[in-house]
Specification:
Blueprint: H1 2-12, H2 27-37, H3 44-59, E1 69-73, H4 79-86, E2 90-95, H5 98-101, E3 111-113, E4 126-132, H6 141-150, E5 152-163, H7 182-193, H8 210-219, E6 223-230, H9 246-250, E7 253-260
Parallel strand pairs: 1-2, 1-4, 2-3, 4-5
Antiparallel strand pairs: 5-7, 6-7
Helix pairs in contact: 1-8, 3-4
Length: 261
């Protein structure tokens, strides 16, 4: 029954106005991102700069970014800051890890240390609340999603993107061994490399599924769902979200876009 409801919900989500932006979720764009992904470890500046620029285009597909005040939950060292500020936003970043925030040198202005599950912002204080690949790193992901909703003003935009557990990159640096269990993959990585992975299963990495995201989007009552889509895939692959099991493997990363009521 839940899967039937989820399929119906995905089918009913209105598509963005195709004339609203030049950004397109094409096959060529997916291939470019896949090529850049190879540099995530050896050249993170190259990869995250490309991803940030694509993210500006994707978010700009739903809202005019110029003049908007936004919070990036889990903003990291600053690649996204540069891209979003260039698009005209007043950009705030939040991260729980000072080391992540200082990755490019000094910590930038409008940067906050805190928890995504208890955002230090007032109710309805932001035009946009954005998060890229953070939800899977908190123990209560849907509490974080609710917090993002809380701090967004009525009519504002919430954009949540997270790495799905059963996708090829679900275990992050322990992949693909996470398919045999997250704890086992973590132990294997420790034996092989002599140290813990950066993303430690059960501490800083948690299994978040596509089904869980669809269910939360269906049951939350504070916003209109604008989009449910695989982040990196071509737009024509969106129908895969309607197929249980298959969607968990091929989605890789789920995007939930909401307009606060």
């Amino acid at each position: 029954m839940a899967d039937t409801v989820a399929r119906d919900m995905v089918a009913r989500v209105p598509k963005p106005d195709p004339c609203s932006s030049r950004w397109r979720a094409t096959l060529g764009r997916s291939i470019r991102l896949l090529v850049e992904f190879r540099y995530e470890q050896p050249d993170p500046a190259r990869f995250y700069t490309a991803l940030a620029e694509d993210s500006v285009g994707q978010l700009g597909h739903y809202i005019d970014l110029n003049g908007q005040t936004m919070l990036d939950v889990g903003g990291g060292p600053g690649y996204f800051r540069s891209a979003f500020e260039s698009a005209g936003t007043t950009y705030f970043a939040l991260d729980a890890d000072v080391g992540e925030l200082a990755g490019l040198g000094e910590i930038s202005a409008r940067t906050v240390i805190g928890s995504g599950m208890q955002l230090p912002f007032g109710d309805g204080s932001l035009d946009i609340c954005y998060s890229s690949n953070v939800l899977e790193h908190v123990p209560d992901p849907w509490l974080m999603a609710e917090e993002m909703m809380r701090v967004t003003r009525s009519g504002g935009t919430v954009f949540i993107s997270y790495t799905t557990w059963f996708g090829p990159w679900g275990g992050h640096e322990t992949a693909p061994w996470h398919y045999l269990g997250g704890a086992r993959a973590r132990r294997r990585y420790r034996r092989l490399h002599g140290h813990e992975p950066k993303n430690r299963f059960g501490e800083s990495l948690f299994p978040v599924t596509v089904a869980a995201g669809l269910e939360w989007a269906r049951t939350q009552t504070g916003a209109e769902v604008l989009e449910l889509t695989p982040r990196y895939n071509p737009s024509w692959s969106r129908w895969l979200l309607r197929i249980p099991i298959l969607r968990e493997v091929v989605t890789w990363n789920l995007v939930i876009v909401l307009r606060k009521k």
